[in-house]
Amino acid sequence: MSDIRRTRLDSGLEIVTDPMETVETVSLGVWVDAGTRHEPAAINGVSHLLEHMAFKGTGRRSARDIAEEMDAVGGHLNAYTARDHTAYYAKVLKEDAPLALDIVADILQHSTLDPEELAREQAVVVQEISQAIDTPDDIIFDHFQATAYPDQPLGRPVLGTEELVRSMTRDTVLTYMRTHYSAPNMVLAAAGRIDHDRLVESAERAFSALPVARQTTTTLANYVGGDFREDRDIEQVNLLLGFEGVAYSDPDYYAASVLSTLLGGGMSSRLFQEVREKRGLVYSIYSFTSSYSDGGLFGVYAGSGEDEVAELIPVLCDEIVTVTEGVRDIEVDRARAQLKASILMGLESTTARCEQIARQMVIYGRPVSVDEVVSKILAVTADDVAAVARRLFAGTPTIAALGPLGKVESFEAIANRLKM
């Protein structure tokens, strides 16, 4: 990580590179500091729709041209939308990096947003929404997010709704793009066999048409919590139990990561061993953290049978309360080792390293060395883990449940079980 270099163009575009001299590939892309949480309620889903439309043709390339040019060099081009950012990235052989840069720059500045293509892509996104609704262990996370952050951008679904997506016009998408896709709102990142100075020189030309005014505004996160239930005639109860988490800059960020790993992050975790291995109450159970610049979530997902859920909930609550009373050093050692290994293994992938430095720039405004991250993980103690558990689990819970809910306890009953 010591070889990471960064340059800020006069336009405000940040460029950051992580050279890897032993590989033959390059991953590069643009991370835009705009996502679902930056959308007005009336156009929820526009970030995701724009992500789709970016690949549907530019002034120089049709949608087919974009696909064929990447396939002709064996490259991969993709994108995704998150609640706090949108990313467009490619992976190619090192000699094809100029092509990848040119295509990414082209789709982010010169997309035609053809009305006929827009109509087709709206239909595609509506199918994606329908698929998510039909996938209980997927849509439950949207319900969880909406319950934790009600009536605010951070609680809205990334995909939007069918009604809103179908109502969007070319002007809607174009106005959003012109507002948010500006040079100061973007990071161009690359990892692999790449020359920083040459990339900067090329990017200065390739991204010359970007707007230079930063106009994005962010509504601050306001965690509320509460209860969501949908009784559905399916085989399994999909249950999410969570709490207000921590922001990226929070002093407890790394302790919360260790807590999540220790509680439900692997086969040796407390929840996996007690709930699945010992009692056989679930096939899938895990804990997770989601952090933002101004808040976050800590949650546990479990998929259980209609009868088993009656036993699952008391056991799950007991494990959450018990972890606040203290954890063993050996558990913390295992959790820290898992997190460290995950970080170091990611260094072997150009795509992972590209995304890592891009997100660090978006979140912290600087690259963060692996040594710094690992040292903070290794500094977490058993007392730190128990303390952050007491902090997080003392708050108002968020519960989301979908499936046959006849044996799922009330919100009040579950909340009482969690009292310390």
N- to C-terminal distance: 43 Å
- Give the SSE string: EEEHHEEHHHHHEHEEHHEEHHHHHEH
Which consecutive residue ranges, at least 5 long each, have pLDDT under 50?
none
Task: Work out the helicity level.
Answer: 40-55%
Structural class: alpha+beta
| E-strand count | 11
| Strand arrangement, major sheet | 1-2-6-3-5-4
Shape: globular
For the biggest sheet, the summary is:
6 strands, mixed
| Distinct helical segment count | 16
Rounded mean pLDDT score: 96
What Rg, in angstroms, do the CA atoms define? 23 Å
Describe the protein in words.
This protein has helices at residues 46-53, 63-72, 97-109, 115-133, 136-148, 162-167, 170-180, 196-206, 253-264, 270-278, 309-324, 329-346, 350-364, 370-378, 382-393, 411-417; strands at residues 5-8, 14-19, 25-32, 76-81, 86-93, 186-192, 226-231, 236-244, 282-292, 295-305, 398-403. The mean pLDDT is 96. The strands form two sheets. The protein has a six-stranded mixed sheet with strand order 1-2-6-3-5-4, with helices on both faces. A five-stranded mixed sheet has the order 7-11-8-10-9, sandwiched between helices. It starts with a strand and ends with a helix. The radius of gyration is 23 Å and the shape is globular. Strand 1 and strand 2 (14-19) form a beta hairpin. Helix 3 (97-109) packs parallel to helix 8, helix 10 packs antiparallel against helix 11 and helix 12 (329-346) packs antiparallel against helix 14 (370-378). It is an alpha+beta fold and 420 residues long.
